[in-house]
Q: What sequence folds into this?
């Protein structure tokens, strides 16, 4: 099948040194990505050398663009065959611009890029508290790439939700849940220690939503 080529460009990173000091274990190796760095996805596949964590956050969007599907979230981007996606590192979120550069198949509206489903085994599972910690808004990127939209993000710093049995809490932003659900599900099952000892509290994680214009970092922690 002929598929579009998708160029991925690292646009902007914010590093929260205070959150790193408070929650993250000291680690020697963090992020090798640099602003302006580019990769080319062929046939919707992960490019060689692409950060696996960043790819996890963007892969469904890249695959949709490769298939000729765009217009995410009912007309989000000025260029409908593009997206601005943040990686899920809540300490140092990086925004990536995805764009079709060689169109081989007709454009078709896709709407939502899809989502990950929650776990079904709810036997003796932990409760996970989700706290909205920090948001950064890139006004210059919004002006350059995003269509004017009336309603963007309702989440506020300090807002909390409780996930029961690894399920999406009522009122939780679907886009944010998409970015964190597999981490919440793992914590609910009693699995932690992500990335070989990333967090000071091994039963926690700091995850960014995938909105590359206004990434929000969420702290996930087992409370029961």
A:
């Amino acid at each position: 099948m002929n598929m579009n080529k998708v160029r991925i460009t690292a646009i902007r990173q914010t590093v929260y040194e205070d959150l790193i000091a408070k929650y993250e274990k000291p680690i020697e190796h963090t992020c090798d990505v640099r602003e302006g760095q580019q990769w080319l996805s062929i046939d919707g596949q992960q490019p060689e050398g692409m950060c696996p964590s960043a790819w996890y956050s963007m892969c469904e969007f890249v695959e949709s663009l490769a298939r000729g599907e765009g217009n995410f979230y009912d007309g989000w981007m000025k260029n409908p065959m593009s997206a601005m996606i943040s990686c899920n590192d809540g300490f140092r979120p990086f925004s990536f611009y995805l764009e079709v550069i060689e169109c081989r198949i007709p454009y078709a509206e896709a709407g939502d890029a899809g989502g990950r489903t929650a776990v079904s085994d709810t036997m003796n599972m932990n409760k996970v508290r989700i706290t909205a910690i920090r948001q950064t808004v890139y006004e210059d990127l919004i002006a350059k790439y995003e269509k004017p939209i009336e309603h963007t993000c309702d989440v506020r710093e300090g807002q909390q939700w409780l996930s029961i049995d690894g399920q999406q809490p009522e009122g939780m932003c679907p886009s944010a849940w998409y970015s964190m659900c597999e981490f919440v599900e793992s914590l609910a099952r009693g699995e932690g220690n992500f990335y070989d000892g990333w967090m000071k509290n091994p039963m926690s994680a700091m995850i960014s939503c995938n909105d590359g214009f206004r990434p929000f970092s969420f702290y996930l922690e087992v409370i029961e």
Notes: Helices lie at 17-23, 52-66, 139-145, 174-188.
